[in-house]
């Protein structure tokens, strides 16, 4: 299947496809965390793509990182199990002290340390991040953490977690975005010593959790960046996150359309391949067109990010377009397969469940539309 992907990274794609080929479809059908696959990605250095060479990484850009994530999904895997390692380290890289970067980044790059988890979302505030209720109170050379988080992924397969908590009460700041701070949490020290983790069973099979903090003590030296500026520190990493998620959705979109195209050509009903029928052919073609369009916006977001330009609009639009295109492709694929689309051995139902997530997380479609309305179209704030 030909695509118009505007990149010249064939060597990167070939290497990723060779690695992914070592893990056939039945491997990804397992209901457990794909430990061996993540280990292989780490061992080959793919998850350290955006870490500078001076800290043991590859020093690549968001463009290359997005291709890595795309290819995982395009080859039938699920990059959601490990994509946190790609973008979570960005907060540390951009805002951590040199001592912190020397302490953590080489280990993250080598795979000795996993930083795959970020604790921001809370049960009562959701995406209204500035009103989060988890507090961090400084007491001498430590901070004491109390509160609750939800939908915090990959804790059980991480060594470190980035935590956003309020260090100044909301009532004492001029802007609600002030007074939030970021901390690095050593999970092995924290769990069972003030931090409790409860897994949440969920539709796409992600390892995600509810987290409770009860007088968890964190060394003051684990504060990343400036106290009270955590919200802004987090924000500048979200463009990378959304662009990488868009790339994963694009990988899914290509997987679905190729799967549907192949099945429609092979499946014969009423003495003709079902792909000869426009009612089958056109939904697949339409889904492919929309995946291609989303792909162009993904690369524009990458280009601007790698050039140090503002890419908020492009990252948000890429994520919206790609998540909707992949979901359209998922529906076309399962409809094309008919009853066989629900059989586990075809993998369509698994990828179908995985694809649905990204219209909700890490930011919902409606919030992206509100961003576009307010910040791009200069319309009144809707919330």
Chain-wise SSE layout:
Elements: H1 10-20, H2 25-28, H3 35-43, H4 62-74, H5 84-87, H6 89-95, H7 98-110, E1 115-119, E2 135-139, E3 142-153, E4 160-166, E5 180-186, H8 187-190, E6 195-200, E7 208-219, E8 223-224, H9 230-266, E9 268-269, E10 272-273, H10 278-306, H11 312-337, H12 348-356, H13 365-376
Parallel strand pairs: 1-4
Antiparallel strand pairs: 2-3, 3-7, 4-5, 5-8, 6-7, 9-10
Number of strands: 10
Straight-line distance between termini? 43 Å
Describe the strand arrangement of the main beta sheet, using strand numbers.
1-4-5-8
Mean residue pLDDT: 95
What is the 3D shape? globular
Largest sheet: 4 strands, mixed
Percent of residues in helices comes to: 40-55%
Low-pLDDT residue intervals, each spanning 5 or more residues: none
- Radius of gyration, whole Å: 21 Å
Give, in order, the helices and strands: HHHHHHHEEEEEHEEEHEEHHHH
- Provide the β-strand percentage band: 15-25%
State the assembly state of the protein chains. Answer: single chain
Structural class: alpha+beta
- Enumerate how many helices there are, as a single number: 13
Which descriptors apply to this entry?
single chain, four-stranded mixed beta sheet, 46% helix, alpha+beta, 383 residues
Descriptive report:
By secondary structure, the chain is α+β, with helices and mostly antiparallel strands. 46% of the residues lie in helices and 16% in strands. It has helices at residues 10-20, 25-28, 35-43, 62-74, 84-87, 89-95, 98-110, 187-190, 230-266, 278-306, 312-337, 348-356, 365-376, and strands at 115-119, 135-139, 142-153, 160-166, 180-186, 195-200, 208-219, 223-224, 268-269, 272-273. 46% of the residues are buried. The mean pLDDT is 95.
């Amino acid at each position: 299947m030909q695509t118009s992907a505007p990149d010249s990274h064939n060597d990167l794609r070939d290497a990723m496809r060779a690695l992914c080929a070592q893990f056939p479809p039945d491997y990804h059908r397992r209901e457990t965390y794909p430990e061996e696959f993540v280990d292989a990605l780490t061992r080959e250095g793919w998850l350290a793509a955006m870490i500078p060479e001076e800290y043991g990484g590859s020093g690549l850009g968001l463009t290359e990182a997005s291709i890595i994530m795309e290819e995982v999904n395009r080859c039938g895997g699920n990059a959601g199990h490990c994509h946190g390692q790609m973008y979570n380290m960005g907060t540390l890289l951009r805002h951590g002290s040199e001592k912190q970067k020397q302490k953590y980044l080489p280990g993250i790059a080598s795979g000795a340390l996993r930083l795959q988890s970020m604790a921001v979302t809370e049960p009562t505030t959701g995406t209204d991040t500035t009103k989060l209720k988890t507090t961090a109170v400084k007491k001498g050379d430590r901070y004491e953490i109390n509160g609750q988080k939800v939908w915090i992924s990959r804790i059980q397969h991480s060594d470190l977690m980035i935590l956003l908590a309020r260090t100044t009460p909301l009532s004492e700041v001029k802007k609600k975005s002030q007074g939030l701070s970021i901390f690095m949490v050593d999970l092995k020290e924290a769990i069972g010593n003030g931090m409790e983790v409860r897994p949440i069973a969920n539709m796409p099979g992600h390892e995600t959790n509810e987290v409770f903090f009860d007088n968890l003590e964190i060394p003051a030296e684990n504060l990343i960046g400036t106290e009270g500026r955590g919200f802004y520190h987090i924000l500048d990493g979200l463009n990378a996150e959304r662009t990488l998620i868009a790339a994963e959705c694009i990988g899914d979109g290509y997987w679905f359309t190729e799967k549907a195209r192949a099945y429609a050509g092979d499946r014969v009903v009423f003495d003709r391949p079902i792909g000869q029928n426009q009612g089958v052919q056109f939904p697949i073609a339409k889904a492919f067109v929309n995946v291609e369009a989303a792909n162009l916006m993904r690369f524009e977001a990458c280009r601007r990010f790698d050039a140090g330009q503002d890419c908020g609009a492009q990252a948000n639009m890429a994520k919206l377009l790609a998540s909707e295109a992949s979901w359209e492709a998922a529906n076309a694929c399962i409809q094309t397969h008919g009853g066989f689309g629900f059989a586990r051995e075809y993998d369509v139902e698994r990828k179908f469940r995985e694809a649905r997530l990204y219209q909700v997380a890490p930011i919902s479609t409606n919030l992206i539309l509100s961003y576009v309305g307010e910040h791009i179209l200069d319309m009144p704030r809707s919330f």
